[in-house]
Amino acid sequence: MIYVKTKQLPLLLVVLGMLLTGCSNELDQPELNNNFAGGTDFSKTGDMIFSLIGVYQSVGARGWEQPLVVSTRGDDVNAAGDQQGLKNQDRYIYDNSFFGSRTLWETYYGDIIGAHTGIEQIERFMEFADEDGVALGNQYIAEAKVLRAILLFQLSQVYGAVFIPESSDLDDFANVTSVPTKDEVMQHLSDQMDEAIPFLLDMRPNERTDLPGGVTKYTALHIKALANQELKNYQAVADATGQIISSGKFSLFPDFYELFKTPGKLSNESLYEFQYSDFGAGTGTRVGHLYAPYGPNGWTPAVVGASAGWGFFEPSLKYVKFMLNRGENSRLETSVLFTQNGIDSIISTTSFTAATLPAFVSSTTRDGDILRDNARHIFSSGKHYLPSNQLIPGRNDYGSNKNYIVYRYAETLLMYTESLLQGASNSAMSADQAVNLVRERAGLTPLSGVTLNQLVDEKYAEFAMEWGKRFFDMVRLERYGELSYEGRTFTADKAFVTYHQDQKDEFPILDGVSN
């Protein structure tokens, strides 16, 4: 049932791509929006959904380098391989000629503008719609606002001060005289979610039958909580996360290991994920993300012919030691894949021996894939790993058919916990109850009187390798010492990536911008 529901939205996206190639092109080239609008019959209000699906399609179609630029800082992960710009960024040395930061900016803004294009098209359809059509249009516009917010939030986390597009008209940028600060961007996103929430569906994403996995009221509440967490407005965090918790609609997927694999697609824990599918077929159309950068550079897969990865994204030895010292099992096995060189590094730098290490600390995963020693990395990310025995026969690309989780309920619970520890109040549950739900799944004993330090450690254990969450937490909480490790030195002025030179050339106002 989950699999059938999972593949419906990507199938709609493929059909859309076949039927409305012109729409896709115009979303990529917003300066031509007027030409596109002139060729659309807005009286056919049943076509309104295609404008929304186009936004979903563009927001989910992330290039391989973009999540890495967002994610590859912090003491949970190291950049590996031959991408020097990414390796420099990981060490807080920001290269304004790095192609990754250029494409992050350009593609994110292209898709943000595309979301505005979709909103404007929906508004045109609504001029011809009946009362029900207008209500549906308001819902679709609210969904597009949420999708736009996902990208703008990440852009501001990476760069700090960024532009806030208000429409699809690029002329709005011709005479820009200031760049909103990160705080201003976060407040804007919080306000946008307040606008969107009344029009969004009151259900889990996986309960939707029109667009399974599409955003709902709770996705928007989660983004509102994230934005206010960055603002350190902890009461607003508690209010938003408390609504999600009190809804009773969400629960943690019981098997942490499978959460990030095929069985975990669109689970009751998911508040939003980028959806990809091979449609159950070994050949033909597919909608996918390139997961190779996360994969081991050398392996012997259980399924012959399954492709290896590029070895660009390596869990840190610091994180592995932290997890071993906590006695973590399911979360460490899920988060980290081990080579023998990695195991030897653990033994040579800790009191663990080959005999005392947990059995899962092995170069062979529980699914039978064997990681080989290589020059690029000693560990690989398990959260971006799809076992070769879960590949659909005929599909050999690393991670093919795997979704990319963006927001999940565990984060809601731990944001809620932190907000209470930071002085907020809410009656949805206690801080202990919220954190212990997460710990229970991990097989850990419950905490009583949880402290902020314990909560910070819990988030480290739970969210390593996920969208740079550890790095952004440490910056927000000013725990800079955690980010100064293995030869790195972090200071507050290194919180934001340098704008690419192309962006400075196009927008000279970016020179000298500070938050």
Q: Can you tell me about this structure?
A:
- One of its GO terms (cellular component) is cell outer membrane.
- Belongs to the SusD family.
- It is found in: Cell outer membrane.
- By secondary structure, the chain is mainly alpha-helical.
- Among the domains are: 157 residues, Serine Threonine Protein Phosphatase 5, Tetratricopeptide repeat; 95 residues, no CATH class.
- 47% of the residues lie in helices and 5% in strands.
- It is built from 21 helices and eight strands.
- The strands form four sheets. The chain has a two-stranded antiparallel sheet with strand order 1-4. Strands 2-8 form a two-stranded antiparallel ribbon.
- α2 packs across α4, α8 packs antiparallel against α9 and α11 crosses α16.
- The radius of gyration is 22 Å and the shape is globular.
- The termini are far apart.
- The N terminus is likely disordered.
Biggest beta sheet attributes:
2 strands, antiparallel
Unreliable sequence segments: 1-37
**Kindly, what is the distance between the CA atoms of the first and last residues, rounded to a whole number of angstroms?**
47 Å
Mind telling me the C-alpha Rg? Answer: 22 Å
**Spatial order of the strands in the main sheet?**
1-4
Pfam families: SusD-like_3, SusD_RagB
Main location: membrane
Organism: Gillisia hiemivivida
Keywords: Cell outer membrane, Membrane, Signal
Helix and strand layout, with pairings?
Layout: H1 2-19, H2 21-28, H3 33-38, H4 48-60, H5 65-71, E1 77-79, H6 84-90, H7 99-126, H8 131-159, H9 182-196, H10 217-230, H11 234-246, H12 256-259, E2 270-274, E3 299-300, E4 313-315, H13 317-326, H14 330-335, E5 336-338, H15 340-349, E6 370-371, E7 379-381, E8 404-408, H16 409-421, H17 431-441, H18 452-463, H19 469-476, H20 480-483, H21 501-506
Antiparallel strand pairs: 1-4, 2-8, 3-6, 5-7
Helix pairs in contact: 1-4, 2-4, 4-7, 4-8, 5-7, 7-8, 8-9, 8-10, 9-10, 10-11, 11-16, 16-17, 16-18
